Amino acid sequence: MRKGDILRLDVVALDDAGDGVALLGDHTVHIAAAFPGERVAARVDYVSKRAPMSHAHLVELLAPHESRRSAPCPQHPSRGGRCTGCALMPLQVNAQRSALTQHLRDDLNLPVAYAPDAQSESERTRGYRYASKRVAFGGPGRVRLGSYIRGTHRVAHMDGCVVEHDTIQQAVRAVEQAVQAANVGAYDERTGVGLLRYVWFKTDGERVLLTLIMSSEDLEAARRIAEHLDPHVIAGVALSVQDGQGNGMRGTAALPVRGRSELTLRVAGVPVAVGPLGFLQPNPEVAGACYRSLVHDTAGALAFDLYAGAGITTTLLRERFAQVVPVEAYPESAASLGVAPVSVERFLAEYAGDTPDLVVANPPRKGLRTEVCAALRRLGPPELRIMSCGPKGLRRDLDQLCASEGEGARYELARLDGFDTLPNTPHIELVAVLRRTDAHSTPHA
User: Fold this and answer.
1) CA 28 to CA 55: how far, in whole Å?
2) Based on CB atoms within 10 Å of each CB, which residue in 103, 169, 303, 415 is the most buried?
3) Average pLDDT for the chain
4) Helix segments in 31-113, DSSP class H
5) CA atoms of 145 and 161, how far apart (whole Å)
6) 3 state DSSP class of 235
7) 383-388 and 358-361 beta bridge pairing
């Protein structure tokens, strides 16, 4: 097989990125914009020298999926655009979920079941994003805000994006015009020249808070941009500096430029204050269902909330437990919880109190990882609940927590619920309920 070859293939599965997977003997072909059950013609773009694997793109649909549709977004590659943020958009939502369920069950042995959802397809898939991170590109007077094309640092336009909330779409247009009027240029990572790197938008459904991420601290330029923004559209502007290499967005502590320094919205009925660099669930409504599932049918004397973040789980647990201990490493979030910032690893290593009745964790995409899993087994609570945005990380964690070998308590997976927090993408939020099975192990005291 060589680059440029055109292959006729039967797609049998999805991969983690939402690309279709076909097999040629022991060789795996990953095909962008192809879905399980389809027969396609695809052109090979890359052949790995290290593994029997290649990447290709769709040339012709020989037998399309019965639920394939025209992508509703004008920037989708299937309609001539370049934005790769919604890989599954050419499938109807129920078919998206079926393909993802197959991938999780067959490839990761995760027996997920989607939580009930009363929303229509349009309600689920349009305007659901309350947070958006945009990449700046272009010189002074012509800056635009878009996104990186997947796997590259080339930038795609996002005009007419159908998944962002309307207030963010309005704010993006206003910021582009303001940056152009202020004669500020975008940062070019190849040359190191330019000022504006990213813009981070958050909305409460009515007002928008934005953070300008620049390559150096230039308050004067930030103020020039803010002067051109209508405060009825942009409620607050802050500045953060990211002067390092790579595309990490979060920079230095935010400096206020104009207007509000935070927004408040409700997730699972809990008021959440979000600052310029604070985390906001992109889809608050579905995220609320995740949080409610995470604490459903729980009660007791003591619970831990690991990776507590904005404190939504902590608040919900305090309605059910006499004492709740939140653990959070990020200083801004820890401060809002009224605790000192500390890593989960350090907290568990130093903890010498009673065994909690429940441990809840909402770790990063890579999961709890070995050190935390081992510490939880030594701690030995009767129940663990994990909210995961990374299925591979969760699979590794389950393997360690449920293993028969090793020290401490052993767990079994009692339930695994899936939540479609980012429709049209391969991302899924999982809530795993684990119960301790080894009654004879001695718990932490």
Assistant:
1) 9
2) 303
3) 93
4) 93-108
5) 12
6) strand
7) parallel
SS3 210: strand
Q: pLDDT confidence of 331, banded at 50, 70, 90?
A: confident
Average pLDDT over residues 256-273: 93
Return the residue matching tokens 């964690």: 397
Angstrom distance (rounded) from CA 424 to CA 18? 9
**pLDDT at residue 114, rounded to an integer:** 86
Length of the chain: 445
The SS3 of residue 69 is: coil
By CB neighbour count within 10 A (0-12 exposed, 13-18 middle, 19+ buried), where does 85 fall? buried
pTM score over 0.90: no
Distance CA 216, CA 419 (A): 39
d(CA 54, CA 399): 29
Q: How far is CA 395 from the centre of its chain?
A: 17
Distance CA 339, CA 341 (A): 6
Tokens matching residue 362:
């909402």
SS3 per residue for 375-441: HHHHHCCCEEEEEECCHHHHHHHHHHHCCCCCCCCCEEEEEEEEECCCCCCCCCEEEEEEEECCCCC
Contact 106, 144 (CB under 8 A): no
- Name residue 256's beta-bridge partners: 238
How many whole angstroms separate alpha carbon 151 and alpha carbon 8? 24
pLDDT at 444 over 60: no
Q: Which amino acid does the sequence have at 243? A: D
* DSSP string for residues in 292-312: HHHHTT--EEEEEEET-TTSH
Consecutive H or E run containing 288: helix 284-295
353 close to 304: Cβ distance less than 8 angstroms: no
Hey, which residues does 73 pair with through a beta bridge?
A: none
Other CB atoms within 10 Å distance of the CB of residue 126? 18
Question: What distances in angstroms separate CA 253 from CA 226, 272, 351, one per listed residue?
Answer: 19, 20, 30
The C-alpha R_g of the chain, in whole angstroms, comes to 23
Nearest to 20 by CA among 5, 3, 40, 6: 40
d(CA 52, CA 26) in angstroms, rounded, equals 7
Parallel, antiparallel, or unpaired for β 144-148 and 131-137?
antiparallel
Mean pLDDT along residues 396-410 = 94
Q: Dihedral, CA atoms, 34, 111, 86, 139, nearest 10 degrees?
A: -120
In this predicted model, what pLDDT tens digit does every residue of 135-181 receive, in sequence order?
Answer: 999 999 999 999 999 888 899 999 999 999 999 999 999 999 999 99
Helix (H/G/I), strand (E/B), else coil: 159:
coil
CA 369 to chain centre: 18
Q: For residues 103 and 406, what is the distance between their CA atoms, to the nearest angstrom?
A: 29
